[in-house]
Amino acid sequence: MGRDKQAKRQTRTVYAPQRKDDTKSPAVISVELDEEEDVEWTWTHTADGESVVTGYTIIKKAEKPRESAESEE
User: Fold this and answer.
1) Which residues have a Cβ under 8 Å from the Cβ of 14 and sit 6 or more positions away?
2) Stretch 52-68: mean pLDDT, rounded?
C-alpha cells in the first residue's frame, strides 16, 4: 500500500494548572496542541485570593493567537 497523502499530525495534551482546593471542577482541564503550538492560560482571581484557569489561547510558536476559549462563571 502507498504512503498516506497526509502526514499524521503529532499532537500533545497540555493540562491546565489546577486549584489546590479540588472541590470544584476546573473550568479548563486540558487542551490538545500540535507540535508548533503553545498555550497561554487565562487566569481569574477569586474573592478568596485563589487564582483559577478560566480559559486559554492557542498560539503558533512566534505567531499571533489562533483560537481562544473562556468559560463563563
Assistant:
1) 30, 31, 33, 39
2) 78
Q: Other CB atoms closer than 10 Å to residue 52's CB: what's the count?
A: 21
C-alpha to C-alpha distances, 9 to 6, 23, 28, 46, nearest whole angstrom: 9, 36, 23, 38
Q: Which of 32, 35, 31 is nearest to 7 (CA)?
A: 35
Q: What average pLDDT does the segment 63-71 reach?
A: 62
Q: What residue has cell string 463563563?
A: 72
Total count of residues recorded for the chain: 73
* Distance of alpha carbon 23 from alpha carbon 2, whole angstroms: 52
Dihedral of CA 45/47/50/56: which sign? negative
φ, ψ of residue 38 in degrees (nearest 5): -130, 170
